[in-house]
Specification:
383 residues; alpha+beta; Aminopeptidase; Alpha-Beta Plaits; 2 domains; six-stranded mixed sheet; four-stranded antiparallel sheet; 11 helices; 24% strand; Peptidase_M20_dimer; metal-binding; hydrolase activity
């Protein structure tokens, strides 16, 4: 079927071009808070898409990178678009691309964000280009290139949800698993900041007059971590702590950042209620606390529509000679937002990769073309 399908056939000799564009994107610093860098990645993608004759629109964001949208006309009878989604931001600091520029060794590409998810962005762009050149899309194709996923998509979430509500299906090109599988289920996550407020006092001269915010935070940390229930897939992690004024002062202030993960949507309310009760209580008299939610992802739950979309995708991948299964992932992604508004969603359909968020992050070069062809065939089957 691959050779017979025009869009998939068009992609057959594009590995070198795909890799060249990935190199350009990887060598641009684009941490979530680096708006100029994230927008530079968007501009390079916009230029590529426009060169293929694909129109784009930019939705501005003041805090983080802008949203880039592209559309390829569909020739079928459906007006509900098929969305190819990916984020342009990475977790790496400014200067990382200069320290670790793109390189290829032994069939693997390396560099900051190479699989998470600049490889997926390029895959999406080339699939859009294939249908633009060859025609035959059964519905309009929308490329959605967002900018702040690594920090919970605070600005892009409304655009993602609005796009998905009107869509027939979403392919989120996060990196494929090292096994070659894709992700059909993910945890939800809530990312919070906890602050405790005490009273400063000299630790030698008038210790008893102080109220230690650090001591109160320590008690709360133990209680929060104890909410973890591995059997239910609920974890609470206090990942960052700071506070105090000086070594010889009873700490007037302390803060922590908290990561809650859960599987079932109904588990969120229970966990948050218990977290809020811990925050409201006090072990150290006179110390108060405040909790703020700074970011959140919904879980990706595979419903009937998601299962049907996976069956289509698995058959399409078989058409390029690859056996693909679905896996569950503890990490969060924008796919949870699209699934939560009722749109059938698959995640991790990008090129195969691993060790994301680390200096050893890699992408399997020989997965680029077959994963793109498989997506093209899956799109063709959504008639």
């Amino acid at each position: 079927m691959t050779a017979q399908h025009p869009a998939a056939a068009w992609l057959g000799d594009k590995q070198g071009a795909m890799l060249a564009l990935i190199e350009e994107l990887v060598n641009i610093d684009s941490g979530s808070y680096d708006k100029p860098g994230v927008d530079a990645v968007g501009e390079r993608l916009r230029r590529f898409l426009n060169e293929q004759g694909i129109p784009t629109v930019t939705i501005p964001n003041q805090r983080h990178g802008d949203v880039l949208k592209a559309q390829v006309a569909g020739g079928g009878g459906s007006n509900k678009p098929i969305v190819l989604m990916g984020h342009r931001d990475t977790v790496f600091p400014k200067g990382e691309a200069g320290r670790r520029p793109f390189r290829v060794e032994n069939g693997r590409a390396y560099g900051p964000g190479v699989c998470d998810m600049k490889g997926g962005l390029v895959l999406n762009a080339f699939v859009l280009a294939a249908y633009q050149h060859c025609g035959g899309a059964p519905a309009p194709l929308v490329g959605l290139f967002t900018s702040d996923e690594e920090i919970g998509s605070p600005d892009c979430r409304p655009v993602i949800e609005e796009t998905a509500r009107d869509a027939r299906a979403v392919f989120n090109s996060e990196p494929g698993r090292p096994s070659g599988n894709i992700v059909t289920g993910r945890k939800g996550g809530v990312f919070m900041a906890l602050e405790t407020y005490g009273k400063a006092a000299h630790s030698g001269g008038n210790y008893a007059e102080g109220r230690s915010a650090i001591l109160e935070l320590a008690h709360k940390t133990i209680a929060l971590q104890a909410l973890t229930d591995l059997e239910r897939g609920i974890t609470v992690n206090v990942g960052l702590v700071s506070g105090g004024q000086s070594v010889n002062t009873v700490a007037p202030h302390a803060e922590a950042q908290i990561d809650l993960r859960y599987i079932r949507p109904e588990d969120r309310a229970e966990a948050m209620s218990r977290i809020e009760a811990i925050v409201a209580g006090s072990t150290v008299a006179g110390v108060t606390a405040r909790l703020e939610i700074r970011g959140e992802f919904h879980p990706l739950v595979q419903d009937e529509g998601g299962r049907a979309l996976f069956d289509v995708y698995r058959d399409a991948m078989a058409g390029v000679g690859l056996a693909v299964e679905g896996e569950f992932a503890g990490g969060c992604a924008d796919s949870g937002f699209t699934a939560s508004v009722g749109c059938p969603t698959l995640c991790a359909v990008g090129p195969v990769g691993g060790n994301a968020h680390s200096p050893e992050e890699w992408l399997a070069v020989d997965s680029l073309v077959p994963r793109a062809q498989g997506m093209a065939l899956a799109i063709a089957a959504l008639r």
